Amino acid sequence: MPIDVIDLGTFVRQWAVQSPKVGWLLGAGASAAARVPTADHIMMDLLLRLYADAHQVVRQSLSLSEARDVERIREYYDGRNGMPALDDPASYSVAFQLALPDPGARRQHLRSVLEGRSPSYGQRILGAFVAAGLTDLVLTTNFDDLIERAVEQAQVALDDPSRRRMLVADLGNPGQANLALSDDDFPFLFKLHGDFRDRELKNLESELQAQDANMRHAVLDASRRFGVAVIGYSGRDASVMEMLTEAVRTEGAFPAGLWWMGRRATSMLNSVKHLFDECAANGVSAYYVLIETFDETMAALGRQAELPDSLRSYVDNLQARPRVTNGGLPQRDRGSLPALRMNALPVLDAPTRAIRAILTATPDRAETREALHEASWRGAAVTSGRQVLALGSPGVLRKALAIEGRIEQCDIDPLAETATTIERALVYEALARGLARGLPVQARIRDSGHRLIVNTTRNDAPESERKGPARALLARAYGDPLTGQCPANLGRGADGRPRRFAESVELALEWRLGALWLLFIPRTWVSALPPADRQRGSGDPASAWRKERWVDRRNEKWAAIIDAWAKVLAPVERTEVSVLPSGLTDRDLVGGRFILGKTTAYSREAQ
User: How confident is the model at residue 338 (pLDDT cuts 50, 70, 90)?
Assistant: First the structure.
């Protein structure tokens, strides 16, 4: 079933009016900013130890910061040598079982990586919410004690003895949870997998399947009283997902809704999709909230929260002073400077009007793209829940999509730091499509990120005055063919022919130093293998070939490639990029233009 996808601003406004009724489920991502290793990092560290033992090499000679070492470890263990595919949810548990089968050794290892950490910015804000009574329930799969410490620090700042201290239940005292719920003794923290300081610690799949019955019962009881916002958690733990699914099937579950947070809805695991299906089947409101990081999300909530004066001052003072400053561009008369040229072009101007409509139902992204294509849509359109924001023809938009009510024009401000997620998504797509029309490339628009891929030269159609020189500039910089066929051992495409490759750039928009920047990252694109030819756990055979192709593209070569793409994307001081193609005759078109600066960003001169 389609999933309701909303932006962070929508969630923040709804949370602000019902915050005490929304509990939080925190995963490893909620502790990442506190330098607590993620599950993936811990798993890779364990595999590194196993790899060193298997190959009889000194463990200290290997490092996860070295891409070559990581690649070797992944190749050795990805679906091989006792490990499932590394993207399998069970891989973390299996790595622990192989490396440290003794519970005491696992406990000691986790103690060594978790001790000495301090709560992050976002955790301190959440601690302030708990102290202020805006958050009464927190659940976490993490072993660390950072939430407890963040709450204690906020309570000291609050200095209100009437506010109860947060109680904690873990696998060592699960009965505490039932007692607290029966007595309305809040705030409360459930540690679903235990605490690294306790003997009761569960992180193997076999242990988690036997999750304490009292703890599960308490979570089910809590689900009838609270909604839950899930952040920093992928859904890999079968025990937790089964617990949430059981809760959804409980009558009256999650009265304040289920809010699952992440960067891309397309990256959801099947277990999370199944949970959304259960929500739909049982009448539970469920939303996917698009966010960037845990800290940024908590900061946005902190700006909307109504806090006592002492806590408002505490939260406002948590924000560290900026660690980046505006750096002047290198001066020509200064000679060679120790400055780094960045792969980012400034976006100087962007459209300020768009069209907005409400769809009759939450759309499927793939079906929406197909409907727009069939209607000969020539603009950009993005959706958030049932809302669609677009640049183009209102008439064609209505022809393509099932729209409820009127299509209206609205103001947008994509160059502002506070621009909404849907506004940024709209101009991101529009800029990618606009750039592609004037260059020898095609735009590949995907939820995971947009890309410009160099087209194959056509002998039957000469290129335009801009496309020809642009292709020649790129060819000189690369010194290799820009397009072609991959070696036969890399497999065949859907057409039965050898797979194709082409040089490309991945695009991104980021707001930094008071401006919006277009980032472009050169990559070699390779056409996909048909699904039937993909072997689980074996990876794409083109990955190694692609890396080999880039081995010599460093230093001067890399600088030349960056320079070429910068000149291709923005050849003049103020390069205009039209949102819509020329020749459209609709009188009610809403389009506009972008203006890109030609000078890329530079690092600040060394002092």
Answer: very low
Position 205 scores a pLDDT of 44
C-beta of residue 426 within 8 angstroms of C-beta of residue 351: no
Of the candidate ranges 116-120, 270-274, 463-467, 535-539, the one whose mean pLDDT is the lowest = 535-539
Distance CA(426)–CA(389), nearest Å, equals: 7
Q: Cβ distance 167 to 176 under 8 Å?
A: yes
Nearest residue to 148 (alpha-carbon basis) of 160, 158, 157, 138: 138
What structural domains and CATH numbers belong to the chain? 5-34+118-313 (3.40.50.1220), 39-114 (no CATH), 341-348+420-587+594-607 (no CATH), 353-411 (3.30.70)
User: Could you tell me the pLDDT band of residue 200, with boundaries at 50, 70 and 90?
Assistant: very low
pLDDT tens sequence across 227-267: 999 999 888 777 788 889 999 998 889 999 999 999 888 88
Three-state secondary-structure class, residue 161: coil
Q: How far apart are CA 504 and CA 351, in angstroms?
A: 26
| Chain mean position to CA 89 | 18
Q: How many CB atoms lie within 10 A of CB 210?
A: 9
SS3 string of 106-123?
Answer: HHHHHHHHHCCCCCCHHH
Q: Are 289 and 7 contacting, i.e. CB atoms less than 8 angstroms apart?
A: yes
Strand ranges across the sheet with 167-169: 5-7, 286-290, 258-262, 227-231, 22-26, 137-140, 188-191, 167-169
